[in-house]
Write a structure and sequence with these properties.
Layout (H helix, E strand, L loop, with lengths): L7 E2 L2 H7 L7 E4 L2 E4 L2 H4 L3 H17 L5 E4 L4 E3 L3 E4 L2 E4 L9 E2 L4 E6 L4 H12 L7 E6 L5 E4 L8 E3 L2 E4 L2 E4 H4 L4
Parallel strand pairs: 5-8, 9-10
Antiparallel strand pairs: 1-3, 2-3, 2-6, 4-7, 5-6, 7-9, 10-11, 11-12, 13-14
Length: 180
């Protein structure tokens, strides 16, 4: 971890100029740069496996111009933050040099015991503030369970335990958790 003391107060613009100059991963939240905790920067086999299976299903099923994108390499801009997510669905041309995404149609997080509060409360509230966002899906890495949040429903999620449909792609949860 950096020797910098944090959180660092800075504007969004200052953060966007500064973030590419440091080796650690940082997020910008409500006017402060904060380091991504090591627990979230890495991950478990269960997290990686579920995320890659979701990504594979979406990549195979989405219709152009929409595509699934792994979120680890690109920060997602909300009105109050820039965070790293797990998977995004985008349906427009994005500049190949972009490091920040502002217009996803769907955001997906794979939730672990350590990230429940962060993913289901902090990030949910931030993601639902994105203009044009259709839905935020929270997949639980250790159980066959998905919560779907949509801006039109406020904070009332729809829960899925068998099959979930994401931007026209049907995903059987049993397939995500096969061989466990």
């Amino acid at each position: 971890m950096s020797a910098l003391e944090y959180p660092l107060a800075m504007t969004r613009e200052a953060f966007e100029a500064w973030a590419p100059t440091v080796t650690e991963r940082w997020e910008w939240v409500r006017g402060f740069a904060i380091p991504v905790p090591h627990a979230f920067a890495g991950g478990t086999w269960a997290h990686a496996r579920v995320a890659s299976r979701i990504f594979a299903k979406l990549s195979a099923g989405l219709q152009a111009p929409c595509e699934a994108v792994i979120g680890d390499l690109m920060r997602l801009a909300t009105p109050t933050s820039q965070r790293y997510g797990d998977i995004y669905i985008v349906c427009e041309q994005i500049d190949p040099a972009a490091t920040v995404l502002a217009t996803p149609k769907v955001v997906i997080e794979v939730v672990s015991h350590e990230s429940v509060e962060r993913d289901l409360f902090e990030k949910r509230d931030e993601y639902l503030g994105i203009a044009g966002l259709e839905a935020y899906f929270a997949f639980f890495e250790e159980e066959r369970r998905v919560l779907e949040y949509a801006p039109r429903r406020q904070h009332a999620p729809v829960e899925y335990r068998d099959t979930v449909r994401i931007h026209g792609v049907e995903i059987a949860l049993a397939e995500l958790f096969a061989e466990w």
